[in-house]
Design a protein that fits this description.
With about 130 residues, the chain is an all-beta fold. It has strands at about 5, 10-15, 20-25, 30-40, 45-50, 55-60, 70-75, 80-85, 90-100, 120, 125-130.
């Protein structure tokens, strides 16, 4: 079964940190890019960060550059999102999604790929930042 499972969300004060995990199973991890997205009810999804697993290429939204770091542990088929200096506007449901690397040849193209090209996504994890 193709599956992504997120964990690590929670409630944190502004300026604090959280690390999200996205554990993958059921597909060839190395052949994919994993994107982190966030969504607030009533708003469109927002791309946060993306990593192409085979070459480690990364991409970030301008709003999180310098604060968030994406990484992967290929042995564990897991992608992490380290979030530092969190702000109230980072509050959202965060989810990860997998797209074939052959579709997004570079991590910079992750955010523009339409939803239907993402083969699977996790259930999401809530991040709440109190000001």
């Amino acid at each position: 079964e193709v599956q992504l499972v997120e964990s690590g969300g929670g409630l944190v004060q502004a300026g604090g940190s959280l690390r999200l995990s996205c554990a993958a199973s059921g597909f060839a991890f190395d052949d994919y890019a994993i994107g982190w997205f966030r969504q607030v009810p009533g708003n469109k999804r927002e791309g946060v960060s993306c990593i192409t697993i085979s070459d480690g290429g990364t991409h970030y939204a301008d709003s999180v550059k310098g604060r968030f770091t994406i990484s992967s542990d290929n042995a564990k088929s897991t992608v992490y999102l380290q979030m530092n200096n969190l702000k109230a506007e980072d509050t959202a449901v965060y989810y990860c999604a997998a797209i074939a690397h052959s579709v997004v040849v570079a991590s910079t193209l992750c955010f523009s790929a339409p939803d239907y090209l993402y083969e699977t996504r996790g259930q999401g994890t809530q991040v709440t930042v109190s000001s």
